[in-house]
Amino acid sequence: MSDILPVRPRVAVITGASGGIGRATAERLAALGASVVIGYHCNREKAEALAAALPGEGHVALRIAIEEADSIAEAVAAVEARFGAVDLLVNNGGATEVVPANDLDALTDDLFDRITRVNLRGPFAMVRAFRPLLARGEKAAVVNVSSIAARTGVGSNLAYCAAKAGLDTLTIGLAKALAPNIRVFSVSPAGVDTGFVPGRPREKLEAMAKTLPLQRITMPDDIARAIIACATLLTSSTGIVVPVDEGRHL
User: Fold this and answer.
1) What is the mean pLDDT of each run of 10 residues along the chain (250 residues)?
2) Structure confidence at residue 174 (pLDDT)
């Protein structure tokens, strides 16, 4: 497969990379020959173990707390010193809590601000900070991991839905602002088989899958392959939202 790819990222930075979608994406990028920066928030041991296990060379685990300006700035400095440029930024880091949509009182101002700070402001802050390194990259791309909740308004909570809708709009705006040298995408999953949503049993995913056109559960590697496609194959596209949801958006 790698022989037909027109673009092979040499250096990729992934936030939230130590598990789930981030881990699957790191594994695929490393298999393509990229040096991968495993961005993590707090689980250093897990991130370092992944960096050591990936095929190829140059992988590094790096703390990137996307809600902290100082952490992002330190990460940029470290990546610049080590690599000098970035070809792919994957904004996968995020956080959520389950709050029923009709329980408006439970979605407090503090919780709303925290969720939007991580899931919307965080990706923007990453792009803003890494823009100079992306500008030095080869056919550089940014891929924001969004959610079908942006379209449906149904998700772990209303703030998360709103933040992901904002992220999709941000993708469109950044695609214009960063053109022609940096392409920007959103990949929009639904119900991925990870532990991202606290307290969501797999049985719920299985029940939902039966109602979808493709009748299967979306796996982390499904999202990883879509991210890779955006970065390597969709070289005439930018500013688009790519659903990876077994047809749930239909």
Assistant:
1) 69 95 97 97 96 97 98 98 98 96 98 98 98 97 97 96 98 98 96 78 82 88 97 96 90
2) 98
Q: Where in the sequence numbering do the catalytic residues fall?
A: 160
Tokens of 203: 């049985």
pTM value is: 0.94
Instruction: Report which of 148, 144, 147, 190 is spatially closest to residue 170, judged by C-alpha positions.
Output: 144
Q: pLDDT value at position 2?
A: 47
Pair 85, 34: CB distance under 8 Å: no
